[in-house]
Amino acid sequence: MMGYTHMAVGCALWTGVRALLPGPPGSLPPELGLAALGSLLPDIDEPQSLLGRKLGFIAWPIKLIFGHRGVTHSLLALAVTLAGLAAAAGAGLLPVAGAAAFWTGYAGHLAGDGLTTSGVPLFWPSENRVRAPLTFPTGGVVEHLLAAGLAAALGWTLRGYWPRLPLP
Ligand SMILES: [Zn+2]
Known about the structure:
58% of the residues lie in helices and 0% in strands. By secondary structure, it is mainly alpha-helical.
């Protein structure tokens, strides 16, 4: 899945989860930033990904050691990320909702890649790939339609946060 689709999936998931939780609605925009960041993190194993292009010094070694869609796309990575975020939230470095948003983005990434033909090695180090019964190729028409639909739905859901334009 492409980076933009991952961000759309992560943000849509967090918007849905957030609607069920208490808390000031004004904190949603920064939480969406964290959900988007979490949704990009698993592809730190690919130097050509959105995040990998910015952090090539991290992306290249991970790709060389584990390969793309390796350990960062596993339940192990999901558990390690959860533990790290829980520690950060416990130490007061991150609001609990922000940590949950980040983790939701990360989990959404794995689910999203599981919808693609290549699947994900959820049970790494086993090389067996897990994928949905119906899949689509990364970067194909279905993925573009999914990203556009999610972006439009998010834009509509978040319309209350848009800046008020001074109208004549
Ligand atoms: Zn991925």
